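Example record

One chain of 176 residues, shown exactly as stored in the release files.
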Amino acid sequence: MTHRALCNELHYNINMKLNPSVQHLTVLLTVILVALLPSRSHPEENRWKFIGKSGTETRWYIDIKSMSHPSHNLVSVWVRSAPDPDWNYSDTMEDGEGTEEILKRIQERYFGDYGHTEALWEIDCLMVSFRLLYFSAYRRDGEILFSTHTPDAEWSLIIPGSVGEIVRETVCGPRQ
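Predicted structure tokens for this chain:
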């Protein structure tokens, strides 16, 4: 086949009209393919649900996309904590050093450029207890400062009025 004949054949195939049923099938397959492809634009969008602030103005979130139920009364959920960037610890000081200032110094000493933490919590909804199976502290730039894996962690009771109670109520529902 000559070069000219090959170009003519290619031009014919490009300009060829598809019959309507093939066109509909092509459109349908394209729509299905696009719908099934994961979005890469905002992977964390709609993932972390804000659940509240603690006394130190730390913001708490749960990862609603990774929540699982290993058994009837157990829930596993990733929990993120991050300091409120607009909060000034010295604004809450009265006389002497308060709890918030002490916690801030501890964070700075052990975590330096602390940005946020993420921990895998396992919550026993029936026994109102929890344990941390994994914990990581991150710098503001996303680098891991510290992490630990504790698959055999002991269970602790959830203290009323604590962040643990907010997490438990969010993932288990109100206590009956």
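Notes: The two ends are 81 Å apart (CA to CA).
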